[in-house]
Design a protein that fits this description.
Methylamine Dehydrogenase, Chain H; 28 strands; about 375 residues; mainly beta
Length: about 375
């Protein structure tokens, strides 16, 4: 009966927005651009997305229609999160958080050009991350104890589903805020689970089951990792969760169980400081060490163990979020701490990085969030 009610509610939503569903994103379906890099400037007076081609030549600046924000205590990473700018390359859509406005902006992507399609409330306070799976979009809100809010994508628009809101129940007074706010929301590759990292605010990875209609379970499975401050995560081809642990400055792997439990497999220090972000590129995982201005590379094995491939220095202070070209040949690293820039690296067959140049992000003194294809 509950499923029938939810299905009816979603059907009503679909009917209400069908007339506006077909937009620029749909028209762009057959377009095959050479690629682009998008960087979120996170301006406090007006958030913008700065676009570049793959060679980091400037291609335009696009207003989100919202304001950026800064978490208390943050130095290099004002949003203290991974996934604040999320690209759905298959559907030519880009999602940006406006932390200072409690909104999300949806852009249509046309090569390096963006068209603003929608600005919608995030369903919480201070949005810092977006996760996408098919027509499901979930937003992570950092303040008031943290929350996740689910949306259904209809064409190129989002529709908030009120029943898909889950409060995380974190301590809203825990300080400093940037180390005690949730770090990322992410779907498992099959879309059946929604994972949330809590960093130092309970040191947990929360796992919500997601039903066939897209609704999260009423309560998460809590995977406690005392002292590790799990910040961000990714998934390898063997089914492991790869986690950047800011507490011990390490990479860690976990097996996923169907019931939401995460079973530890291995953990290896990065050798850097403030290890917070992780991205997988062609089977290699790159972890950003904001306190060391470095990136450490690992490969995972079938048994979950990790092979350290070495560490690469970045030109700017405070290496934070990263993104990769769709062919996996170029890694783009964002640097914060007031010297905000993007540095490009070619990715070797052995996973090692070679710098090819960098650009300063205009108006990006508070920048965080990067996406590429």
């Amino acid at each position: 009966m509950r499923h029938t009610t939810r299905a009816a509610a979603i059907a009503g939503v679909v009917a209400a927005v069908t007339a506006t569903a077909a937009g620029p994103a749909a028209a762009a379906t057959g377009h095959r651009p050479s690629g682009a890099v998008f960087v979120q400037a996170n301006g406090l007076d007006g958030n913008t997305i700065v676009a570049y081609d793959r060679q980091l030549h400037p291609a335009g600046t696009f207003a989100t229609g919202g304001r950026g924000g800064i978490e208390a205590g943050a130095v290099a990473d004002p949003l203290a999160s991974q996934g604040s700018l999320t690209l759905d390359a298959r559907r030519h859509l880009l999602y940006a958080v406006n932390a200072g406005s409690d909104t999300i902006t949806v852009f249509g992507v046309h090569g390096t050009r963006l068209t603003r399609l929608q600005v919608i409330g995030s369903g919480g306070a201070f949005p810092v991350g977006v996760a996408v799976h098919g027509d499901l979009v979930y937003v992570l809100n950092a303040r008031d104890g943290g929350s996740v809010q689910g949306f259904r994508r209809i064409g190129s628009r989002l529709v908030r589903v009120p029943a898909w809101h889950r409060a995380l129940g974190l301590d809203p007074a825990a300080a400093p805020e940037f180390t005690h706010s949730p770090g990322q929301v992410a779907f498992s590759p099959d879309g059946r689970r929604l994972l949330v990292t809590t960093k130092g605010n309970t040191d947990e990875i929360l796992v919500y089951g997601v039903d066939a209609l897209g609704a999260p379970a009423p309560h998460p499975v809590r995977n406690a990792q005392p002292g590790t401050a799990p910040f961000a995560l990714a998934f390898d081809r063997f089914g492991h969760v790869v986690v950047a642990q800011a507490g011990p400055n390490a990479a860690a792997t976990f097996d996923q169980r169907r019931d939401g439990r995460l079973i530890p497999r291995a953990a290896t220090p990065t050798g850097g400081q403030a290890t917070c972000w992780v991205i997988g590129v062609n089977g290699t995982f790159y972890l950003s060490n904001a306190g060391s201005a470095t990136i450490t590379a690992f490969r995972t094995r079938a048994d979950g163990t990790l092979q350290n491939l070495g560490t690469t220095s970045t030109a700017g202070a405070g290496t934070i979020d990263t993104a990769a070209s769709s062919d996996g040949k170029v890694l783009y690293a964002q640097t914060g701490g007031g010297t905000d820039a993007v540095q490009a690296f070619t990715v070797g067959r052995d996973g090692k990085l070679t710098s090819t140049g960098s650009v300063t992000v205009p108006g990006g003194a508070n920048s965080e969030g990067i996406a590429a294809y």
